[in-house]
Amino acid sequence: MDSTPSPSSSSPFGLVSSALGRYIPRGGAAAAAGPAGAQGDRTTRPAVLDPAAGGQEQILGVVNLDSDLRITRCNLSAPVFAGLDAVAGGPFVDLLPPGDVPTVTRRLRQVLETGEAHVARIQRLRRGDGSELVVSLSILPAAVPQEGLTVSLIAMARRLHLYAAETAIGTSLDIGETAQSLAQSLLAWGDVAAVDLDFAVWTGEGVTGQGQGQGQGRIRLRRAALVPDRAWPEGYVTPGDDLPGDASRLLAQAVRRDDAPQAIVIPDREAVERVLGGPRVMRALVPGDRSAGVACIPLVLDGAPPVVLGVAEVWRRADCPFRDSELFDLQELVARTAHHVDLARQHQREHTQVLALQRRLLPRTGGDTIEIASIYQPATPDSAGVGGDWVNSFPLPDGRTALVVGDVVGHGLGAAATMGQLSMEARALLSAGLAPDEVLEHLDETVTLLDDSESGLAAGYSALGSTCCIALYDPVSHRVTLSSAGHLPPVLVSPDGRAGPLAVRPHPGLGAEFALREPFEVHTFGAPPGSLLALYTDGLVEDPAVSIDEGIGRLADAVARVHPWDALQQAARHVVSALAPVRQRDDVTLLLARMIGYRKGDTATWRLPARDDAPARARVQVSALLRQWRTRDDTRDNVLLLVSELVTNAVRFATGPITVRLIRAGHGLLCEVGDTGNGRPRLRRGRPLDDGGRGLHIVHGLTTRWGVRWTDTGKVVWAEVAR
Fold first, then answer.
1. Which of 179, 345, 663, 705 is the most exposed place for a label (fewest CB within 10 A)?
2. pLDDT at 525
3. CA-CA distance, 1 to 25, in Å (whole number)?
4. Please, what sign has the CA dihedral across residues 202, 205, 209, 215?
């Protein structure tokens, strides 16, 4: 590096260097840095933000460039520029981060061509150890154009670094990334920086000031971030590890003295050993065998009392002690960014709640008559991307299986709460025996009520325009009954491999304006064993490059390639990976259902006239079938009595033919009696003189569960008997 030229030079380089000579002692950086500058193995700068041992901080530097933008002379003797590899003859752009090279090169050549200075550009420079220095860069034309350019550097490190650090730390709502950004910013003050957070902060739970750092209860800190990234000694706590109990307690007590959070400095290894004590704590907290001091700064939320979220630690060699000005800078940075850590904590809590709700709604298993696989893929990995897409499948008590998929408008906790409410309401109504179109009518009313500002439930969130599709699979008739509220049509693949979307009439969706509302239609179609049904949300098929019909066609082609022997969950993953856009703008949800149904020999159906002899005829038919199925005597007696009571009730209160169906399932026998009546049987406590009502008590005592479902022509009373 060239020495400072004489003040007599009239070039811009000479003028700036002359000014530097009045502030920088002769001997350059080594003289200014003192003994620390002689440490050849030192990888970080002592006193980066306040390098002078006393007096005014030196922040000025100058570099001269030729017309090829190569360095001809430089004066970067101030300690703040230590580590910049400004070598005569080397390209100036070698000092720049790769991403800044095109812009700065364009500015340099512009000044060369026009002769107009470019002043006060905020710019990052790369040091040899990989760290960066933020400067105010000005490009000045030389007095004689052939002499090139003069670049002046003003390292306003303290203010600029604090501003840049706070801006960087606030860009993510992930608690790990937030802690990592804070640790990287703290590294400018030392050799190693770490952030340890209260375990409740790490998990997103609520944090209070009670008992923190005072020994009440169990103190638990977890390492959230550590820089630089390298191999550490055995036993040293790295990100994701809990600090030993003694270490957590010591740190918590150290930063909360006299019941007030405050920063502390332990200047050298001897003092560190006295404070930490045992070798296990030393191995866990001290990042190496060399002599070291540490500054511990609490992350504090203002309040009454103040809440300590965790501790930031900055380690540096003992031959470069922390000065008061540096400690003030550390405290200022940590104080400015503590609220970002708390925002990340709140976000983590919301994220955990939303994911728990989302997973709760995902299908578990399909049972014996249907195989289920589902994929949910949020648009982004954070909770902002966890939204209102939901799928659910569950067996109904009467042996059918419900398949439900929905898309609630928006993302975040509001959408997830609405999603959960609609999903649970749909499940309850379907389990109560309502048809899909009737369930959608109730959901439509619920969405309208949730959007009512007077109800206070929406809290600024609107679910109008949400969609839902409900399909009920009957494993006996091998038919599916489906209703849709504005949802994209399901795709059906028949056993012979033909695939395509079902013909479902478009609908405006849930919560539409009264004038736009339309009745929810019911579609019924056959789904023989081996059929594959795909229900999905629009995020899977929407692509700006293609039409929505083409996207659905691509889905049909992908589902048609699923082999009957393929594992369904793996097949669902392959379909999503093949179709989901590279840049997801919406959540992706897919539900695949492979129809199995009951074997023909496991079901039997009889139609009987509504006459007084119907119960006796039903008993004869059922008794013969149960002997064929080799049912136990006690089970056979219970089923015959059950069928007799249900048929008798149907003859008494209904007109028209009666249907009796018996199903042999893996868990028991399912008896169904259908009639044309519209009255709902209810179990009630009978009085001594009542003539009726005792039959339902008999049914209730013989079965594991029973219920009613409604049909277009009447109702079906079903009951299950354990085998």
1. 705
2. 93
3. 16
4. negative
